[in-house]
Write a structure and sequence with these properties.
350 residues; mainly alpha; 12 helices; 3% strand
Length: 350
């Protein structure tokens, strides 16, 4: 157990991808199921601590740091938008003339509180996604997916790598323009950045499409009989279950929402195309840091779910029409503290 917190275990024993997936799922559960500011604040602090504990020396990690900064900036603007467009509540601190369309009306602290809570939920997901993408290699994620979802995993991995690649290309273009003595002084000068960036993006897209075509990506599997009607029915059931899950979670019914999400996932996996033959050269290895992180994520996931389902703990909290004190269940708080395991295990720093 001493190696778990040892500095020299960083490179030899990284946390495997499965443990990180469970960690992110457990972290995403509070912002997706509740607007209680106490739980959201705790989840946001945990995600921030884990993100700051990870090394960010690579290009991809620096790109996700920029993406995180932009996302957090947009969440601040969402608070102002909520205040200017929602004029309901009992605590008024100002008023805009009602003759002004959309934004005219009372400015309430109720809208401010709701906007802050919503922004905190978005920020928690952003910080958790940044930490997850910083610590995990997307190729390992694709290897973990079943054969029937391999194509979907490759497409998702390509979409995720677009962010760091675009940021890196933009940084290279800016440095090249500065070496030539060019400076961005106005909006008109932005064309010298956007045009080369668009050209580089198109060139990479063509190269990637050619590479995928050579490897037979998207080609139908041979010898597989289509399951047209069964697949359509499964996709329909998956869509209906997902809609039911969203409605249940939106109404604060946690257990039916999670059950509907599980049903939607099961139907979606069953409706996936036939599995292609794949070769896995590197098996998933479970070391002490991986087990430590997985145990913390399992503790948080099971604790949060069990307390909510069996004790009837209140997750919903609304600022309209009145602002009240949000409830807090200490057991849920203790369960969420298990998500700090990646920050404690130095083996999680990849």
């Amino acid at each position: 157990m001493k190696r778990l917190f040892a500095r020299d275990a960083v490179d030899s024993e990284p946390v495997n991808t499965v443990a990180w997936v469970f960690w992110f799922v457990a972290l995403a559960l509070p912002p997706l199921t509740t607007r209680n500011p106490l739980y959201l604040a705790l989840a946001f602090l945990i995600a921030s601590v884990v993100y700051l504990s990870l090394p960010k020396a690579g290009v991809a990690a620096r790109a996700w740091r920029l993406f995180l900064g932009v996302g957090l900036t947009l969440t601040v603007f969402s608070v102002a938008f909520n205040v200017l467009t929602v004029h309901v509540g009992d605590r008024v601190f100002g008023r805009i003339p009602s003759g002004i369309p959309i934004i005219g009306g009372n400015l309430t602290w109720n809208a401010v509180a709701y906007g802050l809570v919503s922004a905190m939920a978005i920020a928690t997901l952003l910080v958790g996604a940044a930490a997850f993408n910083t610590a995990v290699r997307h190729g390992d994620l694709v290897r973990l997916m079943p054969g029937s979802l391999a194509r979907l995993g490759i497409a998702g991995s390509i979409a995720l790598t677009m962010v760091p690649q675009t940021v890196a290309a933009g940084r290279d273009i800016i440095e090249a323009q500065r070496a030539r003595g060019h400076r961005l002084r106005s909006v008109r000068d932005a064309s010298s950045l956007l045009v080369p960036l668009l050209a580089v993006g198109l060139e990479r897209a063509v190269t990637l499409s050619e590479a995928l075509e050579v490897r037979g990506f998207g080609a139908p599997a041979t010898g597989v009989v289509g399951r047209g009607m069964r697949r359509r029915l499964l996709l329909l059931c998956a869509g209906l279950a997902l809609l039911a899950a969203l409605l249940a979670l939106g109404m604060g019914r946690f257990a039916p929402g999670v059950a509907a999400l599980g049903l939607a996932l099961l139907c979606g996996v069953q409706a996936a195309p036939a599995a292609a033959r794949r070769t896995r050269l590197r098996p998933v290895r479970w070391n002490e840091p991986s087990l430590f992180v997985l145990g913390g994520a399992g503790w948080a996931l099971l604790g949060f779910t069990a307390v909510t389902v069996f004790t009837g703990a209140e997750l919903a909290w609304d600022t309209f029409p009145r602002i009240g004190a949000p409830p807090f269940e200490p057991v849920i708080g203790l369960a969420l503290l298990g998500l700090l395991c990646p920050a404690l295990a130095s083996g999680g720093q990849q």
